[in-house]
Amino acid sequence: MPASQRQVSFARRPIGTPTEDCFTLATVPVGRPGPGQVLVRNDVLSVDPYIRMRMEEKDSYAPVMRIGDVLVGRTVGQVVESHADGFVEGQWVVGRLGWQDYSVASPAELQLVDVSAAPATAYLGALGSTGITAWVGLHAFGKPKAGETVLVSAASGAVGSVVGQLARLHGCRAVGIAGGAAKCELVRSAYGFDDCIDYRAPDFAEALRRALPQGVDVYFDNVGGPILDAVLPLCNNFARIPLCGLVSQYNATEPYGMKNLREVFNRRVTIRGFVLSDHKDLWPQASAALAGAYAAGRLQYRETITEGLENAPRAFIDMLAGANVGKQLVRLRPAA
Amino acid sequence: MPASQRQVSFARRPIGTPTEDCFTLATVPVGRPGPGQVLVRNDVLSVDPYIRMRMEEKDSYAPVMRIGDVLVGRTVGQVVESHADGFVEGQWVVGRLGWQDYSVASPAELQLVDVSAAPATAYLGALGSTGITAWVGLHAFGKPKAGETVLVSAASGAVGSVVGQLARLHGCRAVGIAGGAAKCELVRSAYGFDDCIDYRAPDFAEALRRALPQGVDVYFDNVGGPILDAVLPLCNNFARIPLCGLVSQYNATEPYGMKNLREVFNRRVTIRGFVLSDHKDLWPQASAALAGAYAAGRLQYRETITEGLENAPRAFIDMLAGANVGKQLVRLRPAA
Asked: Which of A53, A262, A270 to substitute to test the interface with B, most B CBs within 10 Å?
């Protein structure tokens, strides 16, 4: 067990797009687990768009990060020392343990994961909170019926790609929106969406309309902003819009002005913001559904793995600009 | 029975605020009821904001009016000739019979009303579809719990005034938003709201915040636009926003750009557009609740009655600018 570890903490609030000087990499002592605690060696870190919101001074659904805090983030790793019942050395666990090599944690913060059923990293993505977010937003709030059309923004992303696959498993037509021809091709070929439209293409609005001959019944929105505005007029009566995130707005210093809110009234649409942590009661059901789909070979995922904790800030910044394919991860220590 | 009657039809689509030349007043023959039909002499006409939406070429929840159509509108009147089972001369009925002195109607279009329990005009307002709109939006979609705060825009208006009274009957704190000190005073004194804020006052945002020390749990919105934008940051987590209308936007040639939609995500708000005609199943329950509150002396309403069908276009135009107090009605024939 080394005496010291690396840790990334929050140095400065960003204005607009974060820059590397918003982060500080430091070497600090490895914590010592007390009675009832375990020490975890973090193997892989998940960097996610919601972290950008936590960097704001206000306006987030969760407590803001204070300057000096260790960056929040989920990790998968192994127990290296346990003083807690039910945990033994070598077990694989997932938790929100932060951007650091080692973490002291309580059992309530940890979930044991089965690395014989799927790779450890899958539990940070399609089989973890990412997949559960997709399941809860789609099924609990989107409430699709077989035969309906489910549209998803950021469709090549970690959440969006799962939404489309779950929609198809449910008997729906799945249409994605993604940035660039390569991502759209991935959405269609790897994830099996019925169609995917490039929002950067000059004929986006027309192409979207063509891809939705039956209109939109569920729009699973990860981005907000102008794309949500473009989708509203394509909604069918009584459409449901689970609002999972607003990634198009996180770096915006001036929020986009939504023009088409009148369609929410005209088409009797329901827009519902949701945050996964409010719905812990649904996790077991979602988790089981995702594991079942994966075991049956019907849940595909992709990962972009950046090597080294020191590169985590760059990976995070690039992800906000859409540089990743699938789940953006950072491997903290070299693969064994 | 006269051979001819007056009728107002749709002459021209407005751009922005409607003008009187959007309407044509003509003298036409009184229709003859066929077998199974009744002839109704319309006594009082209701002019409502939703009509402005029906004047658009598109973008409404209902079929648009065509040029030459009789203006849509609900009336209360008396059966003067019946060839339909269950209807006899002299009965009072409400129906969407249009801007005209007489209408031929089928039983399915008519509701009998009890003018011994309340004045006939009440069935165009607090005891009719207006009150039912308030009840359905508040209870079916707002789902307030006793002790919560219900905020209502256009609070001195026909729907808004009922919403606040129903909220208080349900054990909620009711706060209104209205235009001008006189309307705010009416909302507090006549309708008994706990508070009412003048959106035209220079300190509106600050006054609204002060009036909502516990935040907003239900925002019953009739206006959309900048007021909705101002309310979103005051919402509590899991707030519900039944969107009943967008009167601030009906005359707008350029829609307002909503900046604060991110709060829908941050605060896990549900915005739900609704239109009364989708919810006929709830009418009996709502109607009974409203009649009970009225009989108990706990449902107040106000009316602005304009005399003469020829003045209906002006009354409609002025109502869109907020000139009315309570329900805007037009008496088609002189009071007996």
From this structure: A262
Residue with tokens 């609002």: A243
Of the residues B60, B228, B271, the best mutation for testing chain A's interface (the one with the most A CB atoms within 10 Å of its CB) is B271
Residues B100 and B239 grouped into a single domain:
no
pLDDT in tens, chain B (336 residues): 789 999 999 999 999 999 999 999 999 999 999 999 999 999 999 999 889 988 988 756 777 899 999 999 999 999 999 999 999 999 999 999 999 999 999 999 999 999 999 999 999 999 999 999 999 999 999 999 999 999 999 999 999 999 999 999 999 999 999 999 999 999 999 999 999 999 999 999 999 999 999 999 999 999 999 999 999 999 999 999 999 998 888 777 789 999 999 999 999 999 999 999 999 999 999 999 999 999 999 999 999 999 999 999 999 999 998 888 889 999 997 544
Q: What is the DSSP string of B296-309?
A: TT-----EEEEE-G
Contact call for residues B95 and B103 (beta carbons, < 8 A): yes
The domain total for chain B is 2
Q: Which amino acid is at B148?
A: E
In a domain, B320, yes or no: yes
A264 to chain B: nearest residue by CA? B273
CATH of residue B208's domain is 3.40.50.720
Instruction: Give yes or no for B271 touching A (CB within 8 A).
Output: yes
Are B136 and B115 in the same domain? no
Residues B109 and B150 in one domain: no
CA distance A61 to B266: 4
C-beta separation of A101 from A73 below 8 A: no
Same domain flag for A88 and A222: no
Using a CB-CB distance cutoff of 8 angstroms, which residues of chain B are in contact with residue A260?
Answer: 255
Helix (H, G, I), strand (E, B) or coil at A88: coil
Tell whether A336 is covered by a domain: no
CATH code, domain with A60: 3.90.180.10
Task: Please name which of A324, A313, A327, A264 lies closest in space to residue A24, comparing C-alpha atoms.
Answer: A313
Smallest Cβ distance to A255: which of B255, B262, B272? B262
A218 and A255 assigned to the same domain: yes
**Inter-residue contact B195 to B168 (CB < 8 Å):** no
Cross-strand partners of B25: B8
Q: What is the dihedral of CA A10, A13, A19, A23, to 10 degrees?
A: -10
Could you give the C-alpha distances from B188 to A113, B127, B197, B302, in angstroms and in order?
59, 21, 10, 13
ipTM: 0.90
Q: How far apart are CA B206 and CA B222, in angstroms?
A: 21
Q: Answer yes or no: is A294 within a domain.
A: no
In the prediction, which pLDDT does B336 show? 47
What secondary structure does DSSP assign to B185-196, as a single string? Answer: HHHHHTS--SEE
The Cβ of residue B56 has, within 10 Å, a number of other Cβ atoms equal to 14
Contact (CB<8Å) B267/A249: no
Residue type, B223: V
Task: Spell out the alpha helix ranges (H) of A190-261.
Answer: 204-211, 225-231
Is residue A175 within 8 Å of A152, Cβ to Cβ? yes
Expressed as residue numbers, the domain containing A95 is: 4-125+301-331
Phi then psi dihedrals of residue A93, to 5 deg? -135, 150
Q: Closest Cα to residue A294, out of A119, A127, A134, A148?
A: A127
Other C-beta atoms within 10 Å of A274: how many? 22
Do B192 and B224 share a domain, yes or no?
yes
Separation of CA B268 from chain center: 29
